Each structure stands twice: as structure tokens, then as C-alpha cells.
Amino acid sequence: MAEVKTGWERDKKLHFDTVVTRYDKVRPGYPAELFADVIDFAKPTKKAKALEIGAGTGKATAPFLDAGYDVTAVEIGANMASFLRERFKAYTNFHVTVADFEDIVLEDESVDLIYSATAFHWINADVGCPKIFRALKKGGVFALFRYNHVPRDGEVLYEELQALYEKYYQSYYTSSQRPVKDDYGNPNQILHRFGCKTLDAYGFADITMKLYDDERMCSTDEYMELLETMSDHRHMPEENRTALYNGIKEAILRHGGFCADTLTYQLYMGRKL
């Protein structure tokens, strides 16, 4: 039997365009401190231009609009793009391009900030990163950030859920590409986290990384909806997915109907000198 990889292959990137409302409802946002750190690092001037790769439903868009950037959101999904236009219709400094970032043509040295929030792993970095480097002005910033669900080892509910994943998920996704344990601050895991080599490999300098921690409580229904926004879960065989979901729902209900979700946010930035 051929190895089934990660469930996050790039041919699944349009998955999110089928779950727009659910995605916006249950996916986490990002800490205000993270946005402040990006803006402080980039130090925007008047009429600065920003480009967001994979804007989704705009969970990382408003802080840059409010900071005065003229923002162009590149979003491959037509439904996501419609959602974005409606959400930010009051902003005259917001624009949407419906396209795969790998396919668009960007003018050299035309953008002050390019960023991507939990989306860049869908891009072929060896195409995307050189394009970003060329498009940035001198002193321009490339910012990558994403969130990671942190294991809650030793917690009874978490261990019960892991047993279900071992039975119904790991038995299908058999890839050895998944690391046993994440070390978010380790530069050697940048490829796994963001889908690219370290930024210095693409010519960026002044590289910085910062982590932020958060925790939220999800009701049973919210947690089940969250799973349905994840491409690896949606692309499991129906039999595996149904058994996994039923087991997770029963376990959460047995433990009071809520599940803690511990998050680590990772910010990774570089500058074009």
C-alpha cells in the first residue's frame, strides 16, 4: 500500500473555499501583540503598500488596514474573496486579487510589506520566496505567522482524543514526514512549519522570530466545526472520519462539553536590505 502523506498536499488548497462561514466562525485569530510587532518591525511610511498571501476570511487583515497600509489580498478562492470584499467594503485602501500567488505577476520593488498568516505552506516556496524578494522595496519586510495547536500531554481528555487519532487518523495518514514533537523555536523546523527554507536562504537579512501563547475553550459543537475546516480531516475516508468524529464528540461531552485548545503563535520575519 502506498504511503499516504500529510493531508496537507497543495492540491487541496481550494478546500477552504467550501467552508468559508464555518472557517471564519471557528478558526482562531491572532494576538494584537503579534500585529504590533510586525508593524513596528516594518515601520510603515505614508502610503505604504502591503500584500497579503492567502487572506482567507481576513483574520489577519484589519490591523494592517488600520495602520494605514494600502492592502492587496491575494486569495485563490472566489468564495473567500467575496467574503473579504463584503467584510472590508468600508475600506478604500483594500483590494482583492483572485489568483494563486504563484501565478500572479508583481512589479519589482513595488511593495513595502508582504505577509501570510497560516497560509504560506500552501505555496511552493522556491517559487514564492524569490518572487517576494524581488517585489519588495529596499528595506521591505516579509512576515510569516501561524498558530499551532499545542499538545496537552497528561490531560485525561487530551489523551483520550490521542487514542482516537491513533486508531482512526494515524492508521490512514502513515507518512513519516510528521515530526514526533514540534520545537517551534527551532530554525530547523521552519521548513515543516512554514513550508520554506530559512529566510536567509532566499536573501533576506535582519531575521527575527517570536512566539506568543494563548488558550481558548471550545464547546463540543465548536470543536467539531473546527475539525471540519481542516483539509487533512476532510480528506480522510468517510469511515475513518465518522468514527473519529463520533469518538471525539462523545469524549468531550463526557468531560463536560468543553475542550481546551492551547495555542502557540509563531512569527518569523526577514528584511530585504
Concise overview:
The chain is α/β, with parallel strands linked by helices.
What would you note in describing this structure?
This protein has helices at 20-26, 32-42, 62-66, 78-87, 125-135, 156-168, 190-194, 220-227, 231-234, 238-254, and strands at 49-53, 70-75, 94-98, 111-117, 136-149, 205-219, 258-271. With 273 residues, the chain is α/β, with parallel strands linked by helices. It has a domain at 10-149 and 183-216 and 261-271: Rossmann fold, CATH 3.40.50. The chain has a 7-stranded mixed sheet with strand order 3-2-1-4-5-7-6. Strand 2 (70-75), helix 4 (78-87) and strand 3 (94-98) form a beta-alpha-beta unit. The protein is globular, with a radius of gyration of 19 Å. The chain starts with 19 loop residues before the first helix and ends with a strand.
Question: Would you spell out the secondary-structure blueprint of this structure?
Answer:
Blueprint: H1 20-26, H2 32-42, E1 49-53, H3 62-66, E2 70-75, H4 78-87, E3 94-98, E4 111-117, H5 125-135, E5 136-149, H6 156-168, H7 190-194, E6 205-219, H8 220-227, H9 231-234, H10 238-254, E7 258-271
Parallel strand pairs: 1-2, 1-4, 2-3, 4-5
Antiparallel strand pairs: 5-7, 6-7
